[in-house]
Every structure is written in structure tokens, then in C-alpha cells.
Batch of 2 targets.
Target 1
Amino acid sequence: MPPQSKYNVLITSYLEPEHIARIRAVDPERLDVIFEPDLIGSPRYPGDHYADPERTPEEEARWQQLLSEADILFDFDYTHRQDLPELAADVCWVQSTSAGIGQYVRRYGYDTGWPGTTFTTASGVHARPLAEYVLMVMMAHYKGLLQILDQQEARSWQRLSGTDLEGRTITIVGLGRIGSKVATLAR
């Protein structure tokens, strides 16, 4: 990033207030953290970074002004996928809330539309929740959760005996951060 005395950090997807405060606390003298949740849209569920806001023409003009003044984007602006490099021409760093953004960056031409821009990811942040999800699905499968739910719906209870997972072998294809965490939890 080019050295500057002040950077405008535009938060482009919803974050909880405590996370905004943590970002602002990093360096209040050099970071002007801009977070206008009314322009971003309401999250549909916890961790939703793809809200689709309905902006008035005035709100859209305000949003585009903020994009034009941004030096750093916290997440991609998914409402302007096609023209984001033109609208936010001064951006030198994009911090994604996802991992594996390479294809996305190339698909929308951000690698050429923002030459010299640094793209960083949230790689590893989601490893534990996704690994826990994998274990939940394994347990649901081996303990017959869908059959139990069907019986509950029908108000007809039949004996059901699930399979124990202890002592079983799990195969994990790809030991990245998520696969490694699945292995650790499964052990």
C-alpha cells in the first residue's frame, strides 16, 4: 500500500458493531472507518455478506461517492460487481470475508482493473464452524436424524438404532484448514 497519512476504509458488507469498533481501534489516527449499514442492507442471517440493499437514487449516489473516496474495502461490494474498479478507482487493498477468491477476482477482471491492488482473504476463519458442521452431518447421518424427524412428523415412533462413530475411520480429501480441523475434531 502506498504510504499515506490517512486511509478511508469502507465497510461494504454488514458487520456487528463490536467488530466495527475493533477495526476503528486499530489506528484511529490513520484509519477513517466508514460504515453506513443503511446503505449496505440488512443481513438475512448471521454472517450474511451478500445482502441486496434497495437504495433510493440519493442513497445510491451517496454509496458511489463513498466508493470513490475509499482506499481500502472491507469485502467486495456485491452490488457493483461489474464496475467496482471504476467506481472505487483509488482502492489499494480489498479484504474479503471469504477464502478462495482467486476465481472471483479473475472473473470480474479485478486483477487487471485494479493493477497493484492487494487482495487478502479470510482463509482459515471459517475452519472451525465448517468442521463442526461436517461432524454434525456425520452424526445426523449415522444416528438416523432424518428418520427420526419423519417419525416425529408422522407421530409414529419405531425403534431406531443408529451406528456408533467411535472407532470408525474417516477419509478427508484435502487437508487445508477446514480438512485439518475436521481431522482434529474427528480424532
Note: The radius of gyration is 22 Å.
Target 2
Amino acid sequence: MNIQEMKEKKKEKGYTNEQIAELSGVPLGTVQKIFGGTTTSPRYDTLKALEKIFLPMERYYASVVKDASAAYTVKRQGEYTVEDYYALPDEQRAELIDGVLYDMASPETLHQMVGGYIYARFLEFISKNKGNCIPLIAPLDVQIVCDRDKLYKNRIYGAPDFILEVLSKFTRRRDMVIKLQKYANAGVKEYWMVDIEGRRVFVYIFDEENYPVIYGFDSKVPVYIWGGQCEIDFSEVYNYIRFLIES
């Protein structure tokens, strides 16, 4: 897809430069220069990052895998497999749920800060108490695995005991509906969803009936899998990120 085609798609979809920057992970200044005509020959990786928000999902994944020279068969959404997922280039972030490939844009600074802060508190608690659990962090979520037999190289075989997702407007439905049900069925014990915009934390304890429990950002939220011995003080979390929210 060339720049002119992207400009036409931008107009058709009604995207602003700010939305394109957020969806693609390309800096806003670069987006403004490209769509304003100042930059006429963007870098290849910039073009591919922009392309992913304008092409239909099937065409986009066919494009990135073809460029990576991987053996790959283009399929319709709902037909993709784990093998297809692992055939994607390493730099391409995606999720596979029920045969559907979801593109994952780079996380916002706020999301990384919240996830990183909570991960650090968990790691501190485990280290202090000489626990057997292992906390793992991805760009958008925190996971805790207390059965080390579930870990093999860079993968987890089986459900983590705890998962935390930081919600965004682009992944909110997926995290709150689709993945919620998947986690419950898979055997995850505890699932937190942190809503920065609403300043709320949704806590699901799947072996109890009265969920979710909803906490505000003025609350200390106990970690159920550790019997409440570890708490995350979300007033501290908010103080950590408030300079970005209020700026």
C-alpha cells in the first residue's frame, strides 16, 4: 500500500493524525509529516506500521509474512492456527484467540508504567517472602505462575495463577469479554483489569460467586492467590502516573 492509498483510507475512515499515531505506534510528528506531504519516502518499517491499520486483517498478515519469506497460507479470520501465529515475524505483535489474529499496537506509556509498577511490587513480595511463584510481564499485562512445571523456555504450558490486564479503548472489549471468558475456562484463579481512564480495578476470583469486586484508585487491593498478604495500593499507583494524566 502506497502513501496516496493510505491518505485515501485515512479520509475514508475519518482518522486523525493522533489516532493513526496511537494505533500504529509511529510518532505523531512522523505521521504529520507523511500525511502532510513533507516526507514522501518514509522508512520501510514506518510504512509497514502504518499499513497495518489501513489494510484488512487478512491482507495485512499475508503481507508481513510474505515479506518475512515464511511458509504461510492466507486464511480468513477464525481459521488461523498456532502454527500460523508462530510463523509471524518476531517484531509483529499479535494475539490469537479462537482462530482470529488480533494486531497488538505498541502499549502506551501509561500502560507500561502501571504494569511495570505492579510487577515490581509483586516481585518484591515474592523475593521478600522467598516464594516459589514467578512474575512475568508483557507489554500490556502481568502474569504470575506458581507452578514452575508450567514454564518451558519462552512459553507457559497451562494457565497462570494470576493475570492482570491494563485496559485501553482499543482492547477493552477483548479484555473484558472475550479474554475474561477464556481465562475463566482455562483455569486462571485471579484476573485483574485496571481501568486507568475510569480509575477502577475489576477483580475476578473465579472460584467465588460474587465477582467482580470493583475497587477505586483510592483502595488497597488484596491479592487473593496469596491470601491477601500482598496488597497493591492504587493511590500509590495513581501518584506514580498522575503527572502524565494531569499534564
Note: The longest strand covers residues 190-195.
